[in-house]
Write a structure and sequence with these properties.
About 35% of the residues lie in helices and about 15% in strands. The relative contact order is 0.16. Helix 4 runs parallel beside helix 5 and helix 7 runs parallel beside helix 8. The protein is built from ten helices and twelve strands.
């Protein structure tokens, strides 16, 4: 099997910095990571093995028992940061600077008198951190979710890992359904996400199928897989080499390989080695061609 790697894929600088901070942390058994440091199960298993305590992202309302709390790369609201500090917790902050930029933009829009709409995934940990500091907010993930908000000013920001194509369509819908509102748009999609999305667009036309490597909860990884589906390209989303379906892979001679921004280099390399070693047996197996 021939494997073609995307020109841009895998760990972004924000995730690399977060992982470096974690690896340099002394006495990890005294530290609770306030959620998932990054959305990658392999990384999370390694952190647990090193002694870190991980808080379930859906259950962050309580107070960690450890004296030190690590803020994840996805960030938290200033309200949550203050709550932890008031409880006497020492904070290690690994928030990606590009996520900080979204928080700053949203708060500035509100300070300037705009009602803030966030283009992103409702309930996503990054989005929750953004909206928790706002008096009024709406989160929209598709043009169909856009409403007429009945306000004079609408400020728009984006989750850092939103797909540029989605952002354009949602922005147009906001303008169309709020024709009398003054709208200010701040494009906060991060450059690493843009680079990976652009690379997969180029790769889609060169391969018969795509393998996307990344965590099951990784928004940017899922968006890469979704783009393949939109282009009717067979896609296999795996978290690591052990997840590869040999029967599915055997149907293709040329496979593209990409990965989300929280996927370690070693994981990508292991998947590539496994793919290269697989024989192509087109037609020999009765495997459904539907997207996996």
């Amino acid at each position: 099997m021939k494997v073609i790697r995307a020109e841009a894929m895998g760990l972004c600088f924000g995730v690399r910095d977060a992982l470096t901070l974690a690896s340099n942390t002394r006495e990890p058994e005294s530290v609770t990571i306030h959620g998932e440091l990054v959305h990658n199960e392999t990384v999370l298993d390694d952190l647990r093995a090193r002694g870190f305590t991980l808080t379930d992202e859906a259950r962050r309302g309580g107070l960690p028992e450890t004296p030190t709390v690590m803020i994840t790369a996805h960030g938290v609201s200033e309200r949550e940061r203050g709550r932890l500090a008031a409880a006497g917790k020492h904070l290690i902050d690994t928030t990606c600077p590009l996520v900080v930029r979204v928080h700053d933009a949203a708060r500035q829009l509100e300070a300037d008198g705009y009602n803030v709409v966030v283009i992103g995934k409702p309930g996503h940990v990054e989005v929750r951190g953004i909206v928790e500091d706002l008096a009024w907010s709406r989160v929209v993930s598709s043009p169909d979710a856009v409403e007429c908000y009945g306000v004079a000013r609408v400020g728009v920001v984006c989750q850092t890992t939103a797909a540029a194509r989605d952002v354009a369509a949602i922005r147009a819908a906001i303008e169309a359904r709020n024709p009398d509102a003054e709208i200010r748009f701040v494009d906060t999609v991060c450059q690493p996400t843009r680079d990976r999305q652009a690379a997969i667009e180029k790769l889609i036309g060169e391969v018969e199928a795509m393998v996307v490597v990344g965590g099951a909860n990784s928004n940017n990884t899922k968006r890469l897989a979704a783009r393949c589906r939109e282009r009717s390209l067979p896609v296999h989303h795996v978290q690591g080499a052990d997840d590869l379906d040999a029967d599915w892979c055997a149907r293709f001679a040329v496979v593209g390989l990409t990965a989300g921004t929280s996927t370690p280099d070693a994981t990508i390399d292991a998947v590539e080695r496994a793919l290269v070693s697989m024989p192509r047996v087109r037609g020999a197996l009765h495997v459904d061609d539907r997207v996996r």
